[in-house]
């Protein structure tokens, strides 16, 4: 266990060094988050005050009106499209860097634009699965939640490498899922714990921001100006750490994919550390 955690932390450090070479990669998770908020607002605002708003903002509620189902399905599709689009752009830039190139934001956006059919196809599949899991979770309270969690975990593992497969191999959603599962089988074991290393580093990084927010709330009772300033600083810190965490996970995803699918050690990674993430290597 300690060896796996150590290997995960080492991979996190190597991902961070790669990120420092292309700090503009942080723009993609930021754009993704802002766009998702805009999508939610664009669907919720016209429906505010109507009975159709509840199924969109309340995950535990299923629509009864057929129109609500149409709106909910459209919301899921657009939301997943935004996420997949910017994740694909980030993966494309990460792979360029991992192959020794020097990517820019434009390279990532052009890569995503060139794969719009694949992105639309995968967004449709993801939206369908998301709706199915929501139905399962809502049908039977506790049992439904457990079943939805198990199915969701299985789906997450199976599709772990779908985005890099879409970006590099330009295949449809069915073939991408098959290829992802094939790569997952090669990386199963410590490969999954590599994310724990990034998760641990992220957790430690979040602590100063959490402390600042708590401190700001306390200070706000006596000195509103200072308290608000500390709260804002803490919030900005949490946002920055979240963006870095997202970028690190994507860089790790690209590195593992290249090593498993193409058998090459990505630029900036140690072959020994990366090799420990693979069963049988």
Beta-strand level of the residues, as a percent range? under 5%
pLDDT < 50 runs, ≥5 residues: none
Helix proportion range = over 70%
The total strand number stands at: 0
Work out the helix count. Answer: 12
The tally of structural domains comes to 1
End-to-end gap: 18 Å
Cα shape: globular
Rg (CA only):
20 Å
Structural class: mainly alpha
For the largest beta-sheet, the strand count, sense and barrel status come to: none
Sequence of secondary-structure elements: HHHHHHHHHHHH
Mean pLDDT, rounded to whole units? 82
Report on this model:
It is a single chain. The protein is an all-alpha fold. The chain has one domain. 81% of the residues lie in helices and 0% in strands.
Please write out the topology:
Elements: H1 2-21, H2 27-47, H3 54-57, H4 66-98, H5 105-113, H6 116-139, H7 141-158, H8 162-169, H9 173-187, H10 190-220, H11 224-262, H12 271-275
